[in-house]
Amino acid sequence: MKAALVHPLGRLVMVAAMLMALTLESKGQETDFSPYARFGLGTDQGILNPALAGMAGITTVTGNSSAINADQPASAAGLTHPTFQASIHSETIGLIEGDQKARAFTGGPGQLGLVVKQPRSRSALSFGMTPLSSKAFSIQRIVEDSLLGSIAETYSGSGGMARGYLGLATGWRGKGWVDAGSADSVLVSMRGLDAGFQVDHWFGDAIQTSRLDIADLSFRDVQSVTSMRNRATGFVLGVEAFQVLKAKYSSSQEFEGSWVLRGGATWSPERTLQTDWKRLVESTLILNGVATSLDTSSYSELTIEGVVPMAWSAGGSLQWDGPQGERLALFFDHHAQAWSSANSSLPHLMSGSGLWGDARRSALGLTWQRGRSANRTIQPLWRSGFSWGHLPVVLDMDGDDEGDPLQEWRASLGLTMPMQGSRSASQFHIGMDFGQRHTINPELHTESTLRFQIGVSLTPFVKNLWLTPRLYD
Known about the structure:
CATH superfamily: Outer membrane protein transport protein (OMPP1/FadL/TodX)
Helix content: under 10%
Shape: elongated
Number of helices: 3
Strand content: over 45%
Number of strands: 21
CATH class: Mainly Beta
Low-confidence stretches: 1-31
Radius of gyration: 26 Å
Oligomer: single chain
């Protein structure tokens, strides 16, 4: 670590004493009010895909042949058409620690992706970009100190992490004959397997600013700005498979119903994360109504390397389809990543009273669709879900290296409907979810979140296929 001292050391000693007094008065907290500030990569944004967010994070088994799933490389092979997808989201967060409360607002673009494939092809090329984490927050609290008086703490952030990816997927189908009445049969796809490989690159700059504003003008204020520019390259493997358990056709070869079992898994090995870490600490004083810098300390290290642990997921679904287009499907997903191993290699990204902890999440999802009617041939597809698990943050308020894991639960609801006036299979997606992040002792830390997402999946008209040369007589 390299330090550059600009002004006399005695003034920094005064600043350090002020910080120590504030720490003791703030119930043992060392630096920051929220895991939004402690998590050096930024706060995990979860699934920013409205076509999937309505199922509380079900990603291992897609269950949708018209939505891009950037978290499952194999899903591109199952898309029916070339597809472009984009979305936006907004979120509000309420923070509570003891008797201190604050509220933060964030939002921005969601997943952006494109899948390219030829008609009736089982292979597909996918690429796009999706946010991973965000430092977009601004929170404040007031602390009363016996020596310094009233102190306003402000924590704000900008930037975060994003993931760009390029993937290739291919699939295989096994056909079989299904009886249609007593004297005929129908040839259908009875089983299938899709596999995908995806290369991705993490990048972004997570910037955090902390300010201590002492109401008494005779004391100096303190401002700290930390920048963590991160980058990492790795790959993800994924597979999806399905098996038709039962299919029924009438004697006139009309579909009457089926049961389908699906399963899937993803795996990503360890990857090296490089961070350009910089920090600027300065004391300021109000002179003629203007905050003037008096003492400045800068710390920088060109590159710090650490290891992001391996991640895996597995899931499955059971789906029923009816003769009029009715659909009912149940999903289960489990994700895991041993972030506790990062305490030795990534401690610089977990500042304050925080430690890295093992992350895991389980989710249940449900989709349902009504059958066709005289007024509407394609009905909206509804989704709902519930997830629970542990985030990769452990709050160590007592400094005993054990701490309290930050837990999370989320409930969600979503809707997919065809775009009005479009002759293609383009769709409009709406998703919302709400939940809570908390420790075992809810008075230690609680975050309540509410998020809305909207997006579109655009596909070409059958007579105007994208990236396909036109043929003329």
